[in-house]
Amino acid sequence: MELRQLEYFTVVAEELHFGRAAIRLQMTQPPLSQQILQLERELGVKLLKRTKRHVELTSAGKVFLQEIRRVLTQLERAKDAALRAERGMLGRLVLGFVGSATFDILPIIVRAFQEQFPSVDLVFHEMPTPMQIEALHNKDIDIGFVRTPVVDPLISLWSVHQETCIAVVPKLHPLAQRDSISMGDLSTERFILVEREVWPSWYDDILSKCRDAGFSPIIRQHVKEIQTIVGLVAAGLCISIVPSSTAKLHARDVAYVTIEGEAPHVEMSIAWRTDNNSILVEQFLDTATRLMGNYDKVAVLSDL
């Protein structure tokens, strides 16, 4: 049984006339009749009652027509789905992200992508940068929003945002009244920092800037998330240094203060496997490019 036989039968059943059906199908009548006869032989049932002047569906033919219409409709849907998937309009894209990406970059890009490709199923996994790199290696995620630098020959990176860091202090802290401070002004303070294994480059940069200012920071607590830092600072336990986008959290009991001079800085990048040729990944990167600017998609080789 061939698909064209089903299509031929459907047209004949609609026209109930072999001549008109042949015209619709842009073929001659004899081969059309032969195809219908062959279909009936393969099925082992008679689908049409024929006379010289009249054609009608048998009971079996009526049931067969209903089912065939469902099949043909489903085939059209399957064809459409395949075309949409090929064009990056359908499928599943798994994204990894660091928590701080939700402050600005991630929502902007995801919202624009979903507006353009509403049928693509986006799945999100929050995880630190080292875990995202491992997940990319294992093909557990397709794209990552990571904090760079990262060194890995199998991973391509595109820097989408850079920002300097600011101090976050309790609302009643003396430094909260200042418009700006220096790194040296923090020399006697107790710090809370994100664990080094979560964000190694940033952790090392903070310690380096403290040493440049002539002191080693007093670290009271390590945590995994920037949001936790803000919460503990609000409790009055300590101070910290955070990316400037953290100020969007607007915690009631903290103040954000600009750091003068050479402050620590952070970089957000989109990461993907260099050998990943998925059209969905390409569409996502194209969306990000339009929003964030015409950056080159390059592999960045730096220290993890």
TrEMBL record:
GO terms for cellular component: protein-DNA complex. Signal peptide: none annotated. InterPro entries: LysR_HTH_N (IPR000847), LysR_subst-bd (IPR005119), WH-like_DNA-bd_sf (IPR036388), WH_DNA-bd_sf (IPR036390). It holds the Pfam family LysR_substrate. GO terms for molecular function: DNA binding; DNA-binding transcription factor activity. Residues 1-58 form the HTH lysR-type domain. Keywords: DNA-binding, Transcription, Transcription regulation. Belongs to the LysR transcriptional regulatory family. This is DNA-binding transcriptional regulator, LysR family. It comes from Pelosinus propionicus DSM 13327.
